[in-house]
Amino acid sequence: MRESEPAASAGDLSGVELGEFCAFAVMAKAPRAGEVKTRLVPPLFPEEAAALSAASIQDVVENFLAAGRRVKVRGYVAYSPAGSEALFRELVPPQIELLPPRRIGLGHSLLDSTHDLLAAGYGAVCLVNADSPTLPTAFLVEAADTLRLPGDRVVLGPASDGGYYLIGLKSAHRHLFENIDWSTERVTRQTVERAASLGLAVATLPLWYDVDDATSLRWLCDEVLFGRRSPLFAGDGYAAPRVARLLRGLAASEAAMRLGVDRHIDKVVR
User: Fold this and answer.
1) What separation in angstroms does the CA of 92 have from each of 28, 140, 212, 217, 233?
2) Contact 78, 25 (CB under 8 A)
3) How many C-beta neighbours within 10 Å does residue 8 have?
């Protein structure tokens, strides 16, 4: 895809009015050992971290499909790097479309994905990270419903680390993605400030967490293995069956000690 080209519309949407739909796209990097979730190494090995990344992507897009049973949404993977399309095509179901990258860098990728999906005819776009596999489906539904309201606005799903797990838009506002201190605790605050400078209302979803360090990995283990969650996070988390299966396998191996769950194996939720 050349930089000036918008995304192609989904092949199975012939005759459908895309303006009635919200496009959901997970921002996903190819899950290759040593290239993804490096902050989880240790306690994980690189191959385990890559497997967790792949399982998370699969659960996120399945969550899109679950949301699609309640509101009009269509799912995409906005993947990187260029050339990894075949990997993702094998990873996700055929109902999920693939959105190729045009430029390198998170800010560019977020802006380009927003522009391409709106140019394809969707009425709104939600960009979702690939690090929150248990994100409640209700949050996705709320984001789509909010974007159906009249008037331009931004929907933000704040993450516990100061970033955001979701941004929803009805227009491609370049200023929201330029000169942001990505991968810092300032991202959500700076984005809210940018929205205010543009005169955009901001609708805020409940707090959730990204799995991108040892602490948040432990939160994930607590949630999917033992059915317990920090009081910081409200809502019924998505079951994330692929991540749960992977973590149960790790908990039943020597990795249990590295994950700090070896003393609680008998309490794992099956």
Assistant:
1) 12, 19, 22, 23, 28
2) yes
3) 13
Task: Tell me if 225 sits within 8 A of 269, measured CB to CB.
Answer: yes
Question: Which residue type sits at 161?
Answer: D
Tokens encoding 115: 């522009």
Q: Distance between CA 32 and CA 51 in Å, rounded?
A: 8
Q: How far is C-alpha 88 from the geometric centre of its chain's CA atoms? A: 15
| pLDDT tens-place values along the chain, 270 residues long | 223 333 333 334 544 689 999 999 999 999 999 999 999 999 999 999 999 999 999 999 999 999 999 999 999 999 999 999 999 999 999 999 999 999 999 999 999 999 999 999 999 999 999 999 999 999 999 999 999 999 999 999 999 999 999 999 999 999 999 999 999 999 999 999 999 999 999 999 999 999 999 999 999 999 999 999 888 999 899 999 999 999 999 999 999 999 999 766 656 655
How far, in Å, are 35, 71, 224, 231, 252 from residue 218 at the CA level? 21, 32, 10, 14, 16
HSE of 127, CA atoms in CB hemisphere, 13 A: 26
Which domains are present in the chain? Answer: 18-261 (3.90.550.10)
- Do 47 and 33 meet the contact criterion of CB atoms below 8 Å apart? yes
Given a contact cutoff of 8 angstroms between Cβ atoms, the answer to whether 153 and 195 are in contact is: no
3-state secondary structure of 38: helix
Helices (H), the chain: 46-67, 85-91, 106-119, 137-147, 187-197, 214-226, 241-251, 255-259
